[in-house]
């Protein structure tokens, strides 16, 4: 019964953006729905980072509900008992609400993608010009199902780093795919076929960024942010003692080695140092790419935005070390990575779509009113 209640809560949350899109006097409602879903997915990724950074991932130690209920209100007695038994543990009323709000939000995103899928297949069967294959939202629906499974395993496997990092990467994959779909539905302001020469360079930039985000996720899920306490050196050394074998052993419990011992500081330093060092290569590449692409009118705004977000990312990453990982800056750093991914995806779409015969300039959609 509580699963049905959870579904109804997700539906109610999703009705707010759905209503906003449908009451707007516009003929391109499907495009607006995709952009709204993209924006809310970005918010969900940021709130997921907030959930992890506040140690709320086990605020409700079961899934999909909270102690077998749909709300921490109903599970108040169990949460209070768990908190009284272990006041410094992962369960408290505040953490339970943070975790459940994250789940409600995720279910609402699922409802929005279900709506996209239904609209797209209806347009296919009725031969309405929707300018997108229904397999796009169908693929998104399957992706969010896999993401939900990893969300469940995050809880049931007690925040195992590889599971949590994969959960993060799947969330960003969902965001990036939604961004690509939104770009397909949005008219390109100026068609510049000459920018197609940069499609490989843009793809390399995206690949480097994904690796860097994965390394950042590994730092966060292993709580290695403060393994290096100074900058630009690490604990007073350019190349400190590091244990890469244990630091990057993927299948192990949180805070433990594969042998069941407590993970060493040298292993955490290896995780942090790798993320920090690779960041310089990624920043240098993306800055060079953005400076080159900003010379084209259709790429100027996203390229300038990439430069701005890179500067913010550097500042927040450095502040996390110097200021000892304050929560608002840590959340901003997580969110900045998601925004940067979305911008680089947009650059990739623009360069790929400028090939001959690939211009994406849709007319208005015929989505149902």
From TrEMBL:
Keywords: Cell membrane, Disulfide bond, Heme biosynthesis, Iron, Membrane, Metal-binding, Oxidoreductase, Transmembrane, Transmembrane helix. Pfam families: COX15-CtaA (PF02628). It is found in: Membrane. The keyword Disulfide bond applies. One of its GO terms (molecular function) is oxidoreductase activity. The keyword Transmembrane helix applies. It comes from the Bacteria. It is a multi-pass membrane protein. GO terms for biological process: heme A biosynthetic process. One of its GO terms (cellular component) is membrane. Pathway: Porphyrin-containing compound metabolism. Its main location: membrane. InterPro entries: COX15/CtaA_fam, COX15/CtaA_HemeA_synthase. The chain crosses the membrane at residues 6-23, 35-53, 101-123, 135-156, 162-186, 198-219, 273-293, 305-323, 329-349. This is Heme A synthase.
